[in-house]
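Let us work through a complete example step by step.
Step 1: write down the sequence.
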Amino acid sequence: MAILYYVDFSTADKEEILNQYADKVDSERLSKITRTRDITARVRSLLAGYLLQRAVGGEDVLDLQYVYKNQGKPYLKDYKNLYFNLSHSGTVVACLVSGQEVGLDVQQYVTVKEGLAKRFFTKEECEMLESVEGHTQYEQLFFELWSIKESYIKYTGQGMKQGIDTFTIDKEKEQIKDHDETVSYQVIKIDKLPEYAISACMKQKEAIEIVEVCL
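Step 2: predict the structure and record it as tokens.
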């Protein structure tokens, strides 16, 4: 079973988060945070590290060591059978852990610029969007598709270098087809986060337990 940890800091004081959780992440992440100027970006990075700590060590604070592969995708040096992926958008930060390779993406619904879908989506995906009635439904489907695609390129470790129009989403089978590879994806619905699209990719589909972390 995979586990998704998430936190929404929309009602929290950012300075208080930075003060209270700085000693709850590993030294490498803390160093990265101190080099970040934007306070929202600092909070997101800090909470991402904190969620990873919760996933690996529970209440214990571990000085996690990382190794980087696949265009810089991080893995835990001392936990070779534990895979993770982090994502954030708006005021939501999430961490997915599993015993298999995973990709995770969170997207907050915002206004979609005209023509954006044709730049990044396949012909089939654009047709899927064009069949939707209503502006709200269009935006929701757009960001659902976008989060699925982002979760896949994070799964592969290639990032935007891979191009999100180079593979196709099969909504009926909940799979992504990329040349000879087929990967499962899941759209994760969280009632407390109605304004967000969340998706996860993994080779073999497995149940995902959702854990809300309160600040």
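Step 3: interpret the result. The helical segments are 14-21, 27-34, 39-57, 116-120, 123-130, 135-156.
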